[in-house]
User: Which sequence fits this backbone?
């Protein structure tokens, strides 16, 4: 999991470098935000994955 997150972050970094940070999309948030807002969006996204998305994937895999 940590490796895939590193790849994901690297892809975002390359996108920022080539297209600029104003064009980079994180979840449903668009445009420039503060660091605090960016971190909150990251926390909410990670929480959603752990509490809702991955458990649903696990149930589907079990079926």
Assistant:
């Amino acid at each position: 999991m940590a490796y895939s997150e590193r790849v994901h972050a690297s892809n975002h970094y390359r996108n920022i470098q080539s297209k600029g940070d104003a064009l980079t999309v994180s979840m449903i948030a668009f445009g420039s935000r503060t660091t605090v807002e960016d971190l909150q969006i990251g926390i909410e996204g990670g929480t959603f994955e752990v509490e809702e998305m991955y458990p649903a994937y696990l149930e589907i895999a079990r079926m």
